What we know:
A: mainly alpha, B: 3 helices, elongated
Amino acid sequence: MELFLFxxxxxxxxxxxxxxxxxxxxxYSAFFLILTFLAMAxxxxxxxxxxxxxxQVIVYAGAVMVLxxxxxxxxxxxxxxxxxxxxxxMQKFFGFVIVVALVPLIGLGISTTLLYSGSQLxxxxxxxxxxxxxxxxxxxxxALLFTxxxxxxxxxxxxxxxxxxxxxxxxxxxxxINT
Amino acid sequence: MIPMxxxxxxxxxxxGVGILGVLIRRNALVIFMSIELMLNAVNLTFxxxxxxxETLHGQIYVFFxxxxxxxxxxxxxxxxxLLFRNWGTANIDDINLxxx
Lengths: 179, 100
């Protein structure tokens, strides 16, 4: 049952990510990217990370992609007639060669050096299957986030403030004669 | 339970599709979307390993990766908008002033 679910949701993720890359219009690419993010939230649910799955839907599919769609529609990029799908044929060829050489290396590397059973991965933590049934994922993540990872948490808030200041400054309309 | 390598191979494939998008597309926004795809593939690896090592540190890292990715998307889109305002195009082949 879990294998069937994994094949369906994983297949949706992979196929819609291929559609993101090979779509002529950036608007349709954005839509397929939203579908990819939602399918990945499904994968996170299968892996028992329900807090991260909900955060994925809210932050990625709900905020980041809305920002992308705003910019696509603001710049009216859908109507570009001269926009080629890909570049020079040599760029396409070497792009494919690099990916075909690199991806099996990554896939085989991370799936065979880290062996199948969890007991050979080294020190195991405390949040196993039995604990996951008693303590919810949100509560466990919060217990870790606000105690051990409080410093990165505060630094992240400063990072978001800096990013917001930067975006407001960059996107401000300049007052010159051409505008 | 599914062996862990299924998720890891899926993550590697998604990462490869992201690399393909960055290398062969000419539109700045689609390149940016492929970068987000690569970030998500790495998130999947983190969560898979967090599950199979029965710990939660991977999920905390994913939390921070998502936050930083959201900030990066905001800043990157502001830059792309400025680029479009100054050059009139989002095609990265046309933005070649610094090319030798």
